[in-house]
Amino acid sequence: MSITKTLAASTATIALALSGCATIPGASAPISQNEAQQGAEAHPQLLAEFGGAMTGSQAQYVETVGQNIAVQSDLANARGSFTVSLLNSPVNNAFAIPGGYIYTTRQLVSLMNNEAELAGVLGHEVGHVAARHSQRRQQAAQRNSILGVLGAIASQALLGGTGLGQQLGQLSLQGSQLLTLKFSRSQELEADRLGIDYLNRAGYDTRAMSTVLASLAAQNSLDAQLMGRDNARLPEWASTHPDPASRVQTALSVAQQTGGTGGVTNRDTFLTRIDGILYGDDPQQGVVEGRDFIHPDLRLQFTAPQGFYMVNGTRAVTISGQSGKAQFSLGPYDGNLQTYVGNVFNALSEQQQVRPASIQTTTVNGLPAAYGTARVTSGNQNLDVTVFAYEFANDRAYHFLALTPAGQSGTFNSMFSSMRKISATEAANVIPRHVDVVTVGSRDTVRTLAAKMAYSNAQEARFRVLNGLSSNEEVRAGQKVKIVVRGR
After folding, report:
1. Is the CATH number of domain 283-428 3.40.1000.10?
2. What is the CATH number of domain 431-486?
3. Beta strands of 28-125 (E only): which ranges?
4. Over 90: is that where the pLDDT of 58 sits?
5. 3-class SS at 438?
6. What is the predicted pLDDT for the residue at 26?
7. Cα dist from 439 to 113, 272, 477, whole Å
8. All structural domains of the chain with their residue ranges
Protein backbone atom coordinates (compact mmCIF):
# COMPACT_ATOMS: atom_id res chain seq x y z
CA MET A 1 0.00 0.00 0.00
CA SER A 2 1.62 3.22 -1.16
CA ILE A 3 0.45 6.23 0.83
CA THR A 4 2.50 8.72 -1.22
CA LYS A 5 0.74 7.88 -4.49
CA THR A 6 -2.73 9.27 -5.11
CA LEU A 7 -5.27 8.78 -7.85
CA ALA A 8 -6.22 12.20 -9.08
CA ALA A 9 -9.04 11.23 -11.40
CA SER A 10 -12.13 9.23 -10.64
CA THR A 11 -12.41 5.47 -10.90
CA ALA A 12 -15.39 6.03 -13.16
CA THR A 13 -13.07 7.50 -15.81
CA ILE A 14 -10.80 4.48 -15.57
CA ALA A 15 -13.77 2.18 -15.97
CA LEU A 16 -14.83 4.03 -19.11
CA ALA A 17 -11.42 3.54 -20.62
CA LEU A 18 -11.38 -0.14 -19.72
CA SER A 19 -14.80 -0.59 -21.21
CA GLY A 20 -13.98 0.73 -24.67
CA CYS A 21 -16.56 2.52 -26.77
CA ALA A 22 -15.62 1.67 -30.35
CA THR A 23 -17.75 -0.34 -32.70
CA ILE A 24 -17.14 -4.06 -32.84
CA PRO A 25 -16.56 -4.89 -36.49
CA GLY A 26 -13.98 -7.57 -35.84
CA ALA A 27 -10.52 -8.18 -34.54
CA SER A 28 -8.63 -6.16 -37.15
CA ALA A 29 -10.22 -2.69 -37.07
CA PRO A 30 -7.49 -0.09 -36.47
CA ILE A 31 -7.30 2.14 -33.42
CA SER A 32 -9.87 4.90 -33.72
CA GLN A 33 -9.31 8.51 -32.70
CA ASN A 34 -11.90 8.07 -29.95
CA GLU A 35 -10.08 5.02 -28.57
CA ALA A 36 -6.73 6.81 -28.72
CA GLN A 37 -8.15 9.70 -26.73
CA GLN A 38 -9.71 7.40 -24.12
CA GLY A 39 -6.44 5.54 -23.69
CA ALA A 40 -4.41 8.71 -23.33
CA GLU A 41 -6.77 10.01 -20.64
CA ALA A 42 -6.86 6.76 -18.66
CA HIS A 43 -3.16 5.83 -18.94
CA PRO A 44 -1.75 8.02 -16.11
CA GLN A 45 -4.63 7.04 -13.84
CA LEU A 46 -4.00 3.34 -14.41
CA LEU A 47 -0.29 3.73 -13.74
CA ALA A 48 -1.12 5.31 -10.38
CA GLU A 49 -3.75 2.66 -9.61
CA PHE A 50 -1.46 -0.29 -10.33
CA GLY A 51 1.81 0.67 -8.66
CA GLY A 52 3.35 2.99 -11.22
CA ALA A 53 5.47 2.26 -14.27
CA MET A 54 8.91 0.78 -13.79
CA THR A 55 11.90 2.21 -15.63
CA GLY A 56 15.29 0.90 -16.64
CA SER A 57 16.50 -1.94 -18.84
CA GLN A 58 13.87 -4.47 -17.74
CA ALA A 59 11.01 -2.10 -18.54
CA GLN A 60 12.63 -1.23 -21.88
CA TYR A 61 12.88 -4.92 -22.77
CA VAL A 62 9.20 -5.55 -21.96
CA GLU A 63 8.26 -2.49 -23.98
CA THR A 64 10.17 -3.71 -27.03
CA VAL A 65 8.63 -7.19 -26.93
CA GLY A 66 5.16 -5.75 -26.38
CA GLN A 67 5.39 -3.30 -29.24
CA ASN A 68 6.68 -5.99 -31.58
CA ILE A 69 3.78 -8.33 -30.81
CA ALA A 70 1.14 -5.58 -30.79
CA VAL A 71 2.05 -4.58 -34.35
CA GLN A 72 0.96 -8.05 -35.49
CA SER A 73 -2.64 -7.24 -34.50
CA ASP A 74 -3.32 -4.75 -37.33
CA LEU A 75 -4.63 -2.29 -34.74
CA ALA A 76 -1.82 -0.04 -35.98
CA ASN A 77 1.16 -0.57 -38.26
CA ALA A 78 3.73 1.42 -36.28
CA ARG A 79 5.46 0.24 -33.10
CA GLY A 80 5.26 3.80 -31.80
CA SER A 81 1.46 3.57 -31.81
CA PHE A 82 1.60 1.32 -28.73
CA THR A 83 2.54 2.20 -25.16
CA VAL A 84 3.73 -0.84 -23.20
CA SER A 85 4.24 -0.48 -19.43
CA LEU A 86 5.85 -2.74 -16.85
CA LEU A 87 3.95 -2.12 -13.62
CA ASN A 88 5.45 -2.17 -10.14
CA SER A 89 2.85 -4.58 -8.79
CA PRO A 90 3.29 -7.83 -6.81
CA VAL A 91 0.23 -9.54 -8.33
CA ASN A 92 0.03 -11.64 -11.49
CA ASN A 93 -1.80 -9.26 -13.77
CA ALA A 94 -1.88 -8.03 -17.36
CA PHE A 95 -4.39 -5.94 -19.27
CA ALA A 96 -4.77 -3.51 -22.15
CA ILE A 97 -7.07 -0.60 -22.86
CA PRO A 98 -8.25 1.05 -26.08
CA GLY A 99 -5.74 3.28 -27.82
CA GLY A 100 -2.80 0.87 -27.84
CA TYR A 101 -1.96 0.87 -24.11
CA ILE A 102 -0.69 -2.50 -22.85
CA TYR A 103 0.32 -3.43 -19.30
CA THR A 104 1.89 -6.31 -17.42
CA THR A 105 3.13 -6.53 -13.85
CA ARG A 106 6.66 -7.39 -12.84
CA GLN A 107 5.28 -10.32 -10.84
CA LEU A 108 3.71 -11.89 -13.92
CA VAL A 109 6.90 -11.34 -15.91
CA SER A 110 8.84 -13.10 -13.13
CA LEU A 111 6.61 -16.15 -13.55
CA MET A 112 7.40 -16.44 -17.27
CA ASN A 113 10.28 -18.51 -18.57
CA ASN A 114 10.94 -17.18 -22.05
CA GLU A 115 10.32 -14.27 -24.37
CA ALA A 116 7.64 -16.11 -26.33
CA GLU A 117 5.55 -16.39 -23.14
CA LEU A 118 5.92 -12.65 -22.55
CA ALA A 119 4.83 -11.98 -26.12
CA GLY A 120 1.93 -14.42 -25.70
CA VAL A 121 0.56 -12.72 -22.58
CA LEU A 122 0.82 -9.27 -24.13
CA GLY A 123 -0.65 -10.59 -27.38
CA HIS A 124 -3.61 -12.06 -25.47
CA GLU A 125 -4.31 -8.64 -23.97
CA VAL A 126 -4.04 -6.96 -27.35
CA GLY A 127 -6.49 -9.58 -28.61
CA HIS A 128 -9.08 -8.46 -26.04
CA VAL A 129 -8.74 -4.90 -27.30
CA ALA A 130 -8.76 -5.88 -30.98
CA ALA A 131 -11.98 -7.86 -30.46
CA ARG A 132 -13.51 -5.03 -28.42
CA HIS A 133 -14.35 -7.41 -25.59
CA SER A 134 -14.43 -4.69 -22.94
CA GLN A 135 -17.29 -2.86 -24.64
CA ARG A 136 -19.34 -6.05 -24.69
CA ARG A 137 -18.52 -6.57 -21.03
CA GLN A 138 -19.77 -3.11 -20.12
CA GLN A 139 -22.96 -3.53 -22.14
CA ALA A 140 -23.70 -6.82 -20.38
CA ALA A 141 -23.11 -5.18 -17.00
CA GLN A 142 -25.54 -2.41 -17.78
CA ARG A 143 -28.20 -4.94 -18.75
CA ASN A 144 -27.79 -6.89 -15.51
CA SER A 145 -28.53 -5.72 -11.99
CA ILE A 146 -25.66 -3.82 -10.43
CA LEU A 147 -23.95 -4.49 -7.13
CA GLY A 148 -25.30 -2.68 -4.12
CA VAL A 149 -23.18 -0.49 -1.89
CA LEU A 150 -21.93 -3.31 0.29
CA GLY A 151 -21.40 -5.59 -2.66
CA ALA A 152 -19.23 -2.84 -4.06
CA ILE A 153 -17.28 -2.73 -0.80
CA ALA A 154 -16.68 -6.47 -1.02
CA SER A 155 -15.59 -6.28 -4.65
CA GLN A 156 -13.31 -3.37 -3.89
CA ALA A 157 -11.76 -5.44 -1.13
CA LEU A 158 -11.06 -8.25 -3.56
CA LEU A 159 -9.50 -5.79 -5.99
CA GLY A 160 -7.30 -4.06 -3.49
CA GLY A 161 -8.80 -0.67 -4.28
CA THR A 162 -10.10 1.67 -1.64
CA GLY A 163 -13.39 3.24 -2.75
CA LEU A 164 -13.23 5.43 0.34
CA GLY A 165 -13.55 9.17 -0.07
CA GLN A 166 -15.45 8.45 -3.29
CA GLN A 167 -19.13 7.79 -3.77
CA LEU A 168 -19.62 4.02 -3.67
CA GLY A 169 -22.83 4.51 -5.58
CA GLN A 170 -20.66 5.35 -8.57
CA LEU A 171 -18.14 2.64 -7.84
CA SER A 172 -20.76 -0.07 -7.67
CA LEU A 173 -21.17 -0.11 -11.45
CA GLN A 174 -18.70 2.19 -13.10
CA GLY A 175 -15.70 1.27 -10.97
CA SER A 176 -15.79 -1.87 -8.89
CA GLN A 177 -18.05 -4.01 -11.00
CA LEU A 178 -16.57 -3.21 -14.38
CA LEU A 179 -13.07 -3.81 -13.07
CA THR A 180 -14.01 -7.17 -11.54
CA LEU A 181 -16.30 -8.53 -14.22
CA LYS A 182 -14.85 -11.63 -15.82
CA PHE A 183 -14.56 -12.06 -19.54
CA SER A 184 -16.68 -14.91 -20.82
CA ARG A 185 -15.03 -18.20 -21.67
CA SER A 186 -15.63 -17.56 -25.37
CA GLN A 187 -13.93 -14.16 -25.09
CA GLU A 188 -10.97 -15.69 -23.30
CA LEU A 189 -10.58 -18.34 -25.96
CA GLU A 190 -10.90 -15.75 -28.71
CA ALA A 191 -8.15 -13.64 -27.10
CA ASP A 192 -6.00 -16.77 -26.76
CA ARG A 193 -6.50 -17.55 -30.45
CA LEU A 194 -5.65 -14.01 -31.48
CA GLY A 195 -2.58 -14.00 -29.26
CA ILE A 196 -1.41 -17.29 -30.76
CA ASP A 197 -1.91 -15.86 -34.24
CA TYR A 198 0.22 -12.85 -33.30
CA LEU A 199 2.91 -15.20 -31.95
CA ASN A 200 2.96 -17.08 -35.24
CA ARG A 201 3.22 -13.89 -37.27
CA ALA A 202 6.12 -12.69 -35.13
CA GLY A 203 8.01 -15.98 -35.45
CA TYR A 204 7.62 -17.17 -31.86
CA ASP A 205 6.82 -20.70 -30.73
CA THR A 206 3.02 -20.68 -30.60
CA ARG A 207 3.01 -23.21 -27.75
CA ALA A 208 4.11 -20.39 -25.43
CA MET A 209 0.50 -19.42 -24.77
CA SER A 210 -0.26 -22.85 -23.32
CA THR A 211 2.92 -23.00 -21.23
CA VAL A 212 2.38 -19.61 -19.63
CA LEU A 213 -1.25 -20.52 -18.90
CA ALA A 214 0.02 -23.71 -17.26
CA SER A 215 2.40 -21.69 -15.09
CA LEU A 216 -0.42 -19.35 -14.09
CA ALA A 217 -2.63 -22.29 -13.17
CA ALA A 218 0.18 -23.81 -11.11
CA GLN A 219 0.79 -20.50 -9.33
CA ASN A 220 -2.91 -20.12 -8.56
CA SER A 221 -2.98 -23.61 -7.10
CA LEU A 222 0.12 -22.98 -5.01
CA ASP A 223 -1.27 -19.66 -3.75
CA ALA A 224 -4.47 -21.43 -2.71
CA GLN A 225 -2.51 -24.04 -0.78
CA LEU A 226 -0.29 -21.48 0.91
CA MET A 227 -3.33 -19.41 1.92
CA GLY A 228 -5.20 -22.43 3.25
CA ARG A 229 -7.98 -22.19 0.67
CA ASP A 230 -9.70 -25.07 -1.10
CA ASN A 231 -9.74 -23.47 -4.55
CA ALA A 232 -7.43 -21.50 -6.83
CA ARG A 233 -9.89 -18.91 -8.05
CA LEU A 234 -8.19 -15.89 -6.45
CA PRO A 235 -5.80 -14.35 -7.10
CA GLU A 236 -5.77 -14.94 -10.88
CA TRP A 237 -4.15 -13.46 -13.93
CA ALA A 238 -6.15 -10.26 -13.50
CA SER A 239 -9.51 -10.65 -11.81
CA THR A 240 -11.01 -10.32 -15.28
CA HIS A 241 -9.35 -13.52 -16.55
CA PRO A 242 -11.06 -16.68 -15.27
CA ASP A 243 -9.51 -20.10 -14.93
CA PRO A 244 -6.25 -20.31 -16.92
CA ALA A 245 -6.08 -24.05 -16.14
CA SER A 246 -9.10 -24.83 -18.30
CA ARG A 247 -7.54 -23.10 -21.31
CA VAL A 248 -4.16 -24.83 -21.40
CA GLN A 249 -5.09 -27.76 -23.66
CA THR A 250 -7.24 -25.61 -25.93
CA ALA A 251 -4.37 -23.17 -26.41
CA LEU A 252 -2.00 -26.05 -27.21
CA SER A 253 -4.41 -27.47 -29.79
CA VAL A 254 -4.82 -24.06 -31.43
CA ALA A 255 -1.03 -23.65 -31.50
CA GLN A 256 -0.60 -26.99 -33.24
CA GLN A 257 -3.29 -26.14 -35.78
CA THR A 258 -1.92 -22.66 -36.38
CA GLY A 259 1.63 -23.83 -36.90
CA GLY A 260 4.71 -22.08 -35.65
CA THR A 261 5.47 -24.67 -32.99
CA GLY A 262 9.06 -24.56 -34.19
CA GLY A 263 9.36 -20.82 -33.65
CA VAL A 264 11.79 -19.15 -31.27
CA THR A 265 11.38 -18.84 -27.50
CA ASN A 266 14.50 -16.78 -26.68
CA ARG A 267 14.65 -18.37 -23.24
CA ASP A 268 18.21 -17.44 -22.28
CA THR A 269 17.82 -13.89 -23.58
CA PHE A 270 14.64 -13.45 -21.56
CA LEU A 271 16.14 -14.80 -18.35
CA THR A 272 19.23 -12.65 -18.73
CA ARG A 273 17.14 -9.52 -19.30
CA ILE A 274 14.86 -10.03 -16.26
CA ASP A 275 17.68 -11.06 -13.91
CA GLY A 276 17.37 -9.03 -10.71
CA ILE A 277 13.73 -7.99 -11.17
CA LEU A 278 11.91 -7.15 -7.93
CA TYR A 279 9.80 -10.09 -6.73
CA GLY A 280 6.82 -9.94 -4.40
CA ASP A 281 6.01 -6.84 -2.40
CA ASP A 282 7.95 -3.60 -2.73
CA PRO A 283 8.88 -2.51 0.82
CA GLN A 284 8.03 1.07 -0.11
CA GLN A 285 4.43 -0.14 -0.44
CA GLY A 286 4.59 -2.51 2.53
CA VAL A 287 5.03 -6.29 2.51
CA VAL A 288 2.88 -9.30 3.32
CA GLU A 289 4.79 -11.95 5.27
CA GLY A 290 2.47 -14.85 6.05
CA ARG A 291 -0.37 -13.37 8.09
CA ASP A 292 1.57 -10.17 8.88
CA PHE A 293 1.49 -6.90 6.97
CA ILE A 294 4.54 -4.72 7.64
CA HIS A 295 5.11 -1.24 6.27
CA PRO A 296 8.67 -0.10 7.05
CA ASP A 297 8.17 3.48 5.83
CA LEU A 298 4.90 4.00 7.76
CA ARG A 299 6.40 2.01 10.68
CA LEU A 300 3.34 -0.17 11.31
CA GLN A 301 2.39 -3.84 11.45
CA PHE A 302 -0.79 -5.88 11.86
CA THR A 303 -1.76 -9.55 11.66
CA ALA A 304 -4.68 -11.03 9.71
CA PRO A 305 -6.91 -13.61 11.43
CA GLN A 306 -6.15 -17.29 10.98
CA GLY A 307 -7.55 -18.58 7.68
CA PHE A 308 -7.61 -15.18 5.98
CA TYR A 309 -5.32 -14.06 3.19
CA MET A 310 -4.03 -10.61 2.27
CA VAL A 311 -3.40 -8.83 -1.02
CA ASN A 312 -1.32 -5.66 -0.93
CA GLY A 313 -2.74 -3.18 -3.41
CA THR A 314 -1.39 0.22 -4.39
CA ARG A 315 -3.83 2.14 -2.21
CA ALA A 316 -5.12 -0.45 0.26
CA VAL A 317 -4.40 -3.81 1.81
CA THR A 318 -7.26 -6.29 1.50
CA ILE A 319 -7.99 -9.15 3.87
CA SER A 320 -10.34 -11.88 2.65
CA GLY A 321 -11.79 -15.06 4.11
CA GLN A 322 -14.93 -17.15 4.24
CA SER A 323 -16.44 -15.16 7.11
CA GLY A 324 -15.67 -11.62 6.03
CA LYS A 325 -13.64 -9.12 4.06
CA ALA A 326 -11.74 -6.03 5.12
CA GLN A 327 -9.44 -3.39 3.73
CA PHE A 328 -6.82 -1.22 5.37
CA SER A 329 -6.30 2.31 4.10
CA LEU A 330 -6.24 5.97 5.08
CA GLY A 331 -8.33 9.10 4.80
CA PRO A 332 -8.07 12.83 5.51
CA TYR A 333 -7.44 13.44 9.23
CA ASP A 334 -8.09 16.63 11.20
CA GLY A 335 -6.96 15.32 14.59
CA ASN A 336 -10.34 13.96 15.73
CA LEU A 337 -10.63 10.16 15.46
CA GLN A 338 -14.37 10.05 16.08
CA THR A 339 -14.95 12.50 13.24
CA TYR A 340 -12.61 10.41 11.09
CA VAL A 341 -14.63 7.24 11.70
CA GLY A 342 -17.88 9.12 11.07
CA ASN A 343 -16.56 10.42 7.75
CA VAL A 344 -15.74 6.89 6.59
CA PHE A 345 -19.31 5.80 7.34
CA ASN A 346 -20.69 8.91 5.63
CA ALA A 347 -18.79 7.98 2.46
CA LEU A 348 -20.77 4.71 2.38
CA SER A 349 -24.20 6.33 2.60
CA GLU A 350 -24.95 7.16 -1.03
CA GLN A 351 -27.55 4.41 -1.55
CA GLN A 352 -28.57 3.71 2.04
CA GLN A 353 -27.77 5.21 5.41
CA VAL A 354 -24.79 3.52 7.07
CA ARG A 355 -24.51 4.85 10.62
CA PRO A 356 -23.07 3.18 13.72
CA ALA A 357 -25.08 3.18 16.95
CA SER A 358 -22.08 4.82 18.60
CA ILE A 359 -18.40 5.51 18.04
CA GLN A 360 -16.19 4.28 20.87
CA THR A 361 -12.64 5.33 21.72
CA THR A 362 -9.89 3.10 23.08
CA THR A 363 -6.14 2.52 22.96
CA VAL A 364 -4.44 -0.27 20.99
CA ASN A 365 -0.79 -0.97 21.80
CA GLY A 366 -0.33 2.66 22.81
CA LEU A 367 -2.15 4.04 19.74
CA PRO A 368 -5.29 6.19 20.17
CA ALA A 369 -8.13 4.39 18.38
CA ALA A 370 -11.83 4.72 17.62
CA TYR A 371 -14.37 2.31 16.18
CA GLY A 372 -18.01 1.77 15.33
CA THR A 373 -20.26 -0.88 13.75
CA ALA A 374 -23.39 -0.39 11.64
CA ARG A 375 -26.02 -3.00 10.72
CA VAL A 376 -27.12 -2.74 7.07
CA THR A 377 -29.11 -4.76 4.55
CA SER A 378 -27.78 -5.91 1.20
CA GLY A 379 -30.39 -7.78 -0.80
CA ASN A 380 -31.90 -10.27 1.64
CA GLN A 381 -28.84 -10.39 3.85
CA ASN A 382 -28.07 -8.41 7.00
CA LEU A 383 -24.45 -7.37 7.31
CA ASP A 384 -22.25 -5.59 9.81
CA VAL A 385 -19.90 -2.84 8.64
CA THR A 386 -17.11 -1.96 11.06
CA VAL A 387 -14.68 0.94 10.87
CA PHE A 388 -11.68 0.79 13.21
CA ALA A 389 -9.25 3.73 13.05
CA TYR A 390 -5.86 4.54 14.63
CA GLU A 391 -3.98 7.80 15.13
CA PHE A 392 -0.28 7.61 14.23
CA ALA A 393 0.38 11.37 14.34
CA ASN A 394 -1.55 14.59 14.79
CA ASP A 395 -2.17 14.71 11.04
CA ARG A 396 -2.10 11.01 10.15
CA ALA A 397 -4.60 8.20 10.76
CA TYR A 398 -5.33 4.82 9.18
CA HIS A 399 -8.35 2.55 9.36
CA PHE A 400 -9.84 -0.84 8.64
CA LEU A 401 -13.18 -1.11 6.86
CA ALA A 402 -14.60 -4.58 7.56
CA LEU A 403 -17.66 -6.38 6.20
CA THR A 404 -19.07 -9.46 7.98
CA PRO A 405 -22.40 -11.31 8.28
CA ALA A 406 -24.66 -9.78 10.91
CA GLY A 407 -23.59 -10.70 14.43
CA GLN A 408 -20.05 -11.67 13.36
CA SER A 409 -18.32 -8.30 13.57
CA GLY A 410 -15.92 -9.83 16.10
CA THR A 411 -14.31 -11.85 13.31
CA PHE A 412 -11.61 -9.19 12.91
CA ASN A 413 -11.13 -8.28 16.58
CA SER A 414 -7.74 -10.00 16.77
CA MET A 415 -6.57 -8.04 13.72
CA PHE A 416 -7.87 -4.75 15.10
CA SER A 417 -5.99 -5.34 18.36
CA SER A 418 -2.77 -6.40 16.60
CA MET A 419 -2.01 -2.99 15.08
CA ARG A 420 1.26 -1.56 16.42
CA LYS A 421 4.13 0.75 15.63
CA ILE A 422 7.39 -0.94 14.70
CA SER A 423 10.88 0.17 15.62
CA ALA A 424 13.50 1.54 13.26
CA THR A 425 15.39 -1.73 13.59
CA GLU A 426 12.34 -3.76 12.62
CA ALA A 427 11.76 -1.47 9.65
CA ALA A 428 15.36 -1.84 8.50
CA ASN A 429 15.04 -5.63 8.60
CA VAL A 430 12.42 -5.59 5.82
CA ILE A 431 14.58 -6.52 2.82
CA PRO A 432 13.05 -6.90 -0.66
CA ARG A 433 13.18 -10.10 -2.68
CA HIS A 434 14.57 -10.29 -6.21
CA VAL A 435 14.80 -12.89 -8.97
CA ASP A 436 18.33 -14.25 -9.30
CA VAL A 437 19.02 -16.13 -12.54
CA VAL A 438 21.69 -18.80 -12.03
CA THR A 439 23.26 -21.47 -14.19
CA VAL A 440 22.71 -25.03 -12.98
CA GLY A 441 25.96 -26.71 -11.94
CA SER A 442 26.88 -30.36 -12.37
CA ARG A 443 26.00 -31.13 -8.75
CA ASP A 444 22.88 -29.02 -8.55
CA THR A 445 19.41 -30.55 -8.18
CA VAL A 446 15.95 -29.14 -7.76
CA ARG A 447 16.28 -29.74 -4.04
CA THR A 448 19.63 -27.96 -3.62
CA LEU A 449 18.54 -25.00 -5.71
CA ALA A 450 15.15 -24.76 -4.00
CA ALA A 451 16.92 -24.59 -0.63
CA LYS A 452 18.23 -21.18 -1.71
CA MET A 453 14.75 -19.74 -2.13
CA ALA A 454 14.17 -16.87 0.32
CA TYR A 455 11.15 -18.47 1.97
CA SER A 456 10.67 -20.49 5.12
CA ASN A 457 8.07 -22.82 3.60
CA ALA A 458 7.23 -24.63 0.36
CA GLN A 459 10.64 -23.89 -1.12
CA GLU A 460 10.62 -26.72 -3.66
CA ALA A 461 7.02 -26.07 -4.71
CA ARG A 462 7.79 -22.38 -5.20
CA PHE A 463 10.92 -23.19 -7.20
CA ARG A 464 9.11 -25.61 -9.48
CA VAL A 465 6.26 -23.21 -10.21
CA LEU A 466 8.65 -20.31 -10.78
CA ASN A 467 10.59 -22.33 -13.34
CA GLY A 468 7.68 -24.14 -14.99
CA LEU A 469 8.86 -27.55 -13.79
CA SER A 470 6.49 -30.47 -13.30
CA SER A 471 6.42 -32.41 -10.03
CA ASN A 472 9.04 -34.94 -11.15
CA GLU A 473 11.06 -32.88 -13.63
CA GLU A 474 14.75 -32.29 -12.89
CA VAL A 475 17.14 -29.53 -13.91
CA ARG A 476 20.07 -29.98 -16.31
CA ALA A 477 23.66 -28.78 -15.93
CA GLY A 478 24.17 -25.59 -17.91
CA GLN A 479 20.48 -24.66 -17.81
CA LYS A 480 19.49 -21.20 -16.54
CA VAL A 481 16.92 -21.17 -13.73
CA LYS A 482 15.38 -18.59 -11.41
CA ILE A 483 15.59 -18.48 -7.64
CA VAL A 484 14.22 -15.81 -5.31
CA VAL A 485 16.72 -14.20 -2.94
CA ARG A 486 16.76 -11.41 -0.36
CA GLY A 487 18.51 -8.32 -1.66
CA ARG A 488 21.06 -8.35 -4.50
Report:
1. yes
2. 3.10.350
3. 83-87, 94-97, 101-105
4. yes
5. strand
6. 46
7. 14, 11, 8
8. 11-274, 283-428, 431-486
